[in-house]
Amino acid sequence: MALQYCKKCGRVVDREPDKLGRKDDTCDYCKSKVYPVPEKYWLDGLNFLITNEQKKLLREELVKTAPEFDEYLFNHRDSDIFKRRAELDAVLENGKAILEGRDKGNPYGIECPYCHATNVKKISAASKAVHTGLFGIFSMGRNSKQWHCNRCNSDF
User: Fold this and answer.
1) Which whole-number Å values give the CA distances from 104 to 22, 23, 26, 119, in the listed order?
2) Could you give phi then psi for residue 122, rounded to 5 degrees?
């Protein structure tokens, strides 16, 4: 693990090599080349710790003076990264809701009493008629239900 910084946007990150031992040498924000943080900015000689003051000094001395420096990216870096994380969290939450059967697109506001999923559908009158035609009196238990859970296949 070692601290690296980007001369274009000023991002300082702690990078680990991947499972094959390769290092990623691009900034995860602006995709520019990253460089190791010089030893004089490390906290107590540790190449994975840096104080906010040292980070600010590094940005003043090395980033803002670099020819690659982009002031727009530097000024918007933190808010853009926050937005990206919020968007990713929303996508992950939606995927998790779908996997758990809590699909947010449920127009009924009904929840399965057994598994608490919201991925339900209304049992139609036509479906009840077909079921009665096929199973006769044995379909009365199902025909008294209004909803079907698509996650646990229960009727309620």
Assistant:
1) 40, 40, 37, 8
2) -80, 135
